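Review form for a predicted model. The reviewer records the input and the model, then writes brief findings.
Reviewer: anonymous (R2)
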Amino acid sequence: MLSKCNDDMADKNAKWKENVKGKFYVDEECISCDACVREAPNFFIMNDEDGHAYVLAQPKTKSEIEECMSALQSCPVEAIGDDGDEE
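Model under review:
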């Protein structure tokens, strides 16, 4: 069995529909722990109805990307990916 590598923590084929298009996304493994929202509140938000986080906005600057990477690294279930659609 292959293990996930750091570049591919989440499954971009299992992204939540609420994610805005772009590099970062949250997939269906999200357990609604709120870690990403605490780390990067300008980019991640909770869908309290469905019980999961999603990407509200994509980062543009180096510091914003670092903030999102911190959120990715804080996710206990590896539900955040950084290999989404760049369009």
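Findings: Helices lie at 35-39, 62-74.
Further findings: The chain has one domain: 19-81.
Recommendation: see findings above.
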